Amino acid sequence: MIRAAVVGTGGIAGICHLPALRSQAHRVRPVAAVDVDEARVKAFCAEHSVEGAYTSLEEMLEAERPDLVHLCTPPHLHAAQAVACLEAGAWVWIEKPACLSLAEHDLITAAEGAGRASVVSQHRFGSGARHLRALAPELGRPLVALCVTTWYRDDAYYEVPWRGRWETEGGGPTMGHGIHQMDLMLSVLGDWTEIRAMTGTLERRIETEDVSMATVRFDSGAMASVVNSVLSRREESYLRFDYTEATVELRHLYGYRNADWSSTSALWNPPEDLPSSHEAQLAELLDAYERGGPPPMGGADGRRALELITGLYASAATGRPVLRADLVPGHPFYDRLDGRGWS
Asked: What are the strands of the beta sheet with 117-119, ordered from one edge?
């Protein structure tokens, strides 16, 4: 049995990660959980029948030697915690956003050895997305795409101290909400070349943006319009891909099934109905672990959405187009996304 640990026992751990672990109970078992709040971690362990309750990541790694660690803590903690897990020889599955900058992502990757890192990006793994990627060559050349994450988060949502702050959340809805739809778009259209963007803080009392918009040009020549918002009363996650021979659309909110997809192509017929979920991604992650890697959403795949987000923030802050090729060490947005390094 693969021995798993959960670090951070807030909402996402119980809502998404424990059900995913239960779905793979034939080959993985949660043996420990960690939280700085002792009462909360003990309650979590009692609720989910997890034996080891810890308030220190280092103590847990030393005592339990887990094979896989689920990182469910706030974003500003991810990089240091991921490195600690990797140096202990564990694989680590990191909730989005994986970290606060490309510099931190590269630090995580550099720490890989016996342990490997993977980023949660469950929308890549539903049957609709898999079918689109397989079918795309039959649909002709990609031309136009829309990538829309229009959600609603009120002022109370941002009362959690780490939310809405550059130092702890790393960004606004671009970083914390739209990242999933943008990653799914990237998995279909491939690498991008250029981005032009604007951001605004229109309504929420936060440091980061509450709205962002961008136009993206891809290596293929295709162009996409991207919208991210936490001010939209009618919530929707929407993707549209226009090819020379067909249009494919996805409308959902926090997860999809086949019924949420539509297409003008007679070829559109996903062979199974696998919902996008942590369960779907964890299954592939465990497959990779058992064969010795590499994990899905590791390395370059895990970095791609963060590259696009970095380019978006850089373009919005500077008022200039940003090329993907420019986002290397030394770029003023490589180490942080709030523009403090740019003048």
From this structure: 52-54, 28-34, 2-7, 68-71, 91-94, 117-119
